[in-house]
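Q: For a teaching session next week I want to show students how multiple molecules come together into a single three-dimensional assembly. I've collected the sequence lines for a complex. Could you give me the predicted structure tokens for the whole thing so I can convert them for display?
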Amino acid sequence: MKSLVRATIGILLVCGILMYTAHAMDTTTGKSGKNILTVYNWGEYIDPALLKKFEKETGIHVIYETFDSNEAMMTKIEQGGTNYDIAVPSEYAIEQMKERHLLKKIDHSKIPNFKNMDADFLNLDFDKKNEYSIPYFWGTVGIVYNTKLLKGYDFNSWNDLWDPSLKGKIILVDSAREVMGVGLNSMGKSLNSTDSDELNAATQKLIKMAPNVKAVIGDEVTQLMINGDAEAALTWSGQAADMMYENEDLTYSVPEEGSNLWFDNMVIPKTAKNIDGAHQFINFMLDPKVAAQNADYVGYSTPNKAALKLLDPEVVHDERYYPSKEIRSKLHVYKNLGKEKIGEYNELFLKFKMSIR
Amino acid sequence: MRRKGNLFSLIPYYIWILLFVIAPILLVVYYSLLDLNGHFTLNNYTNFFTSVYLKMTLSSFWYAFLITLFSLFVSYPAAYLITKLKHKQLWLILIIIPSWINLLLKTYAFIGIFGNKGPINAFVQAIGLPNQQILFTDFAFVFVAVYIFIPFMILPIFNALDKLNPALIDAARDLGASKFTTLRRIIIPLTMNGIKSGVQAVFIPSLSLFMITRLIAGNRVITLGTAIEEQFLVTQNWGMGSTIAVFLIIFMFIIMLFTGEKRKGASRHGKTQ
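A: Of course. Below is the structure for the complete assembly, covering every listed component.
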């Protein structure tokens, strides 16, 4: 009995100490007051030197936190208890956040640098008139492949993936919209198709590709491609850029039939405390010099037209990162198709995955 | 059997069961009857009987069967050996300890081990064979799953074997039974409850394995667990996810019926006499 009491007291004591430490850490880092700005962004998605520069210019102290999925980010903001002033969700997440009233409107009069943006990337379906969001980076979905392991392939067409010589060599991303998009695009259909016949036909076509599929996985693909463990993979341009940076044998191609165009965008969540600071931050990031430096550091494509002139021309003219207008006209942003259609996409994707044996 | 005095102290237990076992199951059943818009429907159940989910159920059972079978083949001799060793508790701990390490960490380790540049392929090449694709195969999946489940199989079998009265084996040998007959007619029947507990502890979780199916099998193996995960996290169709869960619960009860019979009065880990 005595030892039981002792153990209980011991546990309570440890709990107390931990709670106090957590509280102390909260007060030194967490709470955003007048001169603190909390930025919630994807990992490795900003040049840290820019944060320093922003702090120096404005006197606002920046707390930078990261997330690794739109869903996790949304849940954290929705549940409250956080006070993020800036978040950087992808386009479909913005639609959902708008529906759930998690966003504050952006006051464009406070963002003069908005004029630097490329009009092609503004006023898109997911946020007409950019009431809630400002594009941060953009990219495509395509095929990254190892030119040493696969000689004589260029993947200019999605249909190249069906080539019988690629048996067991292709890695797909474990995401219904991307993979179904390959099927739809390869048939010249829209990747926002809601026609069940088209979707079924795309699935049947994908099933014919099944023997070529090595695996259907998530972010693990980055390491496999870098190590030369896999020959070709369906992936996002940003991830492909990471891989190509590490392994020079890799290259990236966006097939001609068209593909997905994605955006990550700066928004001000409902939970924001420092709204003035948030606007200052957005305006700062849209400054051509800053945007160029950031794009150079992160390696993604910037939607900032003025910044393009400041970037290395070799990168800007590299169609892998900045596809030509002609190709871009074939790229489409995902529309929010509603829960039912998304469910159908997922059911069909599951059917496809079941066919990989 | 001091029933009367104990009734009062059982109350916390019943509250626990009610809150954390019965209520969640009822919730799962309730959600399984809702469609995407929260209206009452039986469609989820009819959906389950389409070819996709039936095929998935069959393949889940097949892989769970393989995993259980191989775990048993490895664990029974291992458990038997341990009972014969001098420091058996120490050896047992050595087998149990890996099960304390997070499952994901162990799985990630295997990605490296099985990779094209991993130690296994280095060995394969060293003896002059061509590089083998090990990751993303059925073999890799079953191997990793067996590795993860072995402690759960060894423990109950070890307990059953350890409690086996050695006099019975001596008696069998004295009466002329060969080693094999002793094993078949005496040891295995007497440790059957340990085997059954082990089979339960491996087969049921194997049915709902996920993560490993993606990391090691590259989604070439899809179990009911993978489907549930996807319905909840990606599709956000809680109804369908719950329906699959309901079937999984039903399967579990059936398996427990099969592996749990004739246990009247016996302790959980064997020893029927």
